[in-house]
Here is the input.
Amino acid sequence: MASIWQQALVHMKKAFIKPLFETWIKSTMPLSINDDVIEIGTPKQFVKEWLESRYVPVIKAALKAAANKDFEVVFINMDVEMEELELNPLLEMEPLEETSSISNMVEQNKKTANGEVNKAIEPRADQDVNNTDYLKYLDDIGDIPEAAAALSPAVSVLDKQKPALKVNIQTEKRNSSAITSSLSTPDEFTLNPKYVFSTFVIGNSNRLAHAASLAVSEAPAQVYNPFFIYGGVGLGKTHLMHAIGHRIKENNPNMKVVYISSEKFTNELINSIISGNPESFRQRYRNIDVLLVDDIQFLSKKEHTQEEFFHTFNTLHEANKQIIISSDRPPREIQTLEDRLRSRFEWGLITDIQTPDLETRIAVLRKKAMMESLNVPNEVIVYIASRIENNIRELEGAFIRVIAYASLNNLPIDIDLATEALKDIFPNGRPKQITTELIQDIVAGHFKIKLEDLSAKKRTRNVTYPRQIAMYLCRELTETSLPKIGEIFGGRDHTTVIHAHDKISRERNADAKLSNTIKELIKRIES
Ligand SMILES: Nc1ncnc2c1ncn2[C@@H]1O[C@H](COP(=O)(O)OP(=O)(O)OP(=O)(O)O)[C@@H](O)[C@H]1O
Here is the structure.
């Protein structure tokens, strides 16, 4: 799948000029491929609508050129924040040597009836063409879609082989061990390059923390100072802190940004005392622009370190420098934290990260698979995501284990392999087979309607609402394609399924009752 989309992107890159490509295509991601249907994720509804209304023929032509086969293209709005738009990692590949058939078509269309190149509508490669200009250009050449759809692929690359498993099996070590210490040379910026906003998945559990982190990083020391993030183990606090650090450094290359765990802070202080040079320690921390201190809870019971940190905090805060702190609990619950320090932490913004819901856990794993260019069946992703609820580090660990197992044994990733690879972690073994019939049965039972009502033509709310929920769950929990789901629910069009899925996803975010109902249904489906 990734390989077909990768080839198609190469063709599209040639067919579109850069600003257009960057705006509309680069932010999409391939989600699944089933028979003749390819599902493409878009970051926002307006991108989805724009692509649907303007570029389906060109995208189809690119897919045909890539796979020598006609695909139906379905766009799915994933509703991710614009700020965290993923730069499509598939775009890092080398372009094909061959001339794209689509760009040939574009060239063809630039010619006037007598074969002359129509310079008036030809955008120059070096020209700073904005989207409106380019859209006008596409309008001018008008017949690109039909022409592109009709083209016979000059380059037909269908990689039917299993994609090579290219896995970074290294376990993520965190905090101080994963990150070169910034302290020996505090102005040296050394944060984990993987912990950036674009790799952070936003869900209900972390939406506010993410938004506040963005605000802090865009205006350090101006909006929320200090900024305090708390939450359970492995939920992304360190990731967000590093993302803030990266963003500040990108925007302000001259700023001194220092990340430190509170354990390391303590050790450095002790060492400076032992070596009889506590002043050098103080100077280090009082001459920086942004201080990020991770896991501050470890300062509890360390009176002398708290005292030192208190002075560092005051010096930086008075000098209008940004301070960002993380902890596994809110300041008032950190035992034996001095009151004066606690009250300072409460000066600014305190935000929490909660445990992620199923969708977010699924999205984290999908993103990880995408970043590794791996085709991991939805069933496997749901299997892992539904079993590890409280810790994203553990979620990633289980996922990496499955991928490593497949890679080492040179086997495709499927549910049997995942069950085998994770048998020590999930001793209950192979998951129950989740089918659309099972989902329909449980949803109909829950809403006390007849099973056949789900596929009937009836459009009364007492039937349409459960039907939409059932469609949503089929989409989330099974591998079934959109057209197939439509067929199962009384021969409905795939766009009806998309609409149902979009609607329930949206309403679920705003409606706690619906969210609980869905959680309850998922529990029953999986048990
Ligand atoms: N929302 C997210 N999107 C993508 N990856 C995430 C997300 N949340 C956490 N992770 C990943 O989970 C792993 C653990 O996250 P992190 O180290 O930031 O957790 P933490 O809250 O700091 O944990 P601890 O309490 O142990 O310090 C990291 O690899 C991180 O990239």
Remarks:
- The chain has a mean pLDDT of 77.
- The pocket of adenosine-5'-triphosphate is lined by residues 172, 174, 195, 199-201, 206, 231, 233-239, 295, 328, 364, 392-393, 396 (CB under 6 Å).
